[in-house]
Structure formats: structure tokens, C-alpha cells
Amino acid sequence: EVQKLNQQLEEKNGEIQQMINQPPYEKEREILRLQKTLAEREKAQATSDVLCRSLTDETHQLQRKLASTAEMCQHLAKCLEEKQRKEKGNSDDQIPTQRSNQVFLQLLYNETSLQALICNLQEENRMLKQKVAHV
Predict the structure, then answer these.
(1) Does Amino-acid biosynthesis count among this protein's keywords (predicted)?
(2) Which segments of the chain have a pLDDT < 70?
(3) Residue 29 has what DSSP assignment?
């Protein structure tokens, strides 16, 4: 393993000597190439940071929506239970009540889906604007 490391060290020293022996314009070209590579990496890192921040924001937003939706569902379930307890004796009235509750829950689900879609589109729009500004 030591021999292997010594061999790698000798190769690196050879590369350094080769660069030292290069004409000045070659050195400048290599410096420019390395600067360009560094700039590209910094740009990629900045883009990655922006995407991570936007994903974090979106995650927090979705967690808040999920919590509020869960709270709303619990509230609706309690209301439904109370209604069913009150209408326990009227079996004829219970069928329309169940149907209206199903319709209400479906409307709530559709509204939540639309809100999630709108939020996703707004987030995508924001990200695209950031990319355009970056470019």
C-alpha cells in the first residue's frame, strides 16, 4: 500500500513538473480551464441550493396543508357522528343525510385537490422564474 501511495505521489510530482515546464501560455490556458470548471461547479451548487430551498418550502407548505386537512376531516367526522346520533330514530331521513355527507366530502376532496394543484403550479412558476433570472 505504501508503494502504491509512493507511486501515486511520483505521478502527481510528474504532473506538477510537467506543468512547471509548460510555456506560460499553456499555464494560463490551464488556469482559465480550471477557473471555468470552478465557475460551473459554483453555478451547479447555487442551483442545487435554490432547488433544495424550494423543496424545503414546498415540504413545509404541504405539511401545513396536511395538518389542516386532517383537522378538517376530524371536525367533519365529529359533525357526522353527532348528526347520526340525532337522526338515529329516522331511518328514512338517514339515507339522504348520508348521501349529502358523501357529496360534501367529495366536494371537500375536490377543493383540496384543486388547492394542491394550484400550489404546485405556483411553485413551478416560481422555480421557472428563478431559473430565468439565473440564466
Answers:
(1) no
(2) 89-112, 114, 135
(3) H
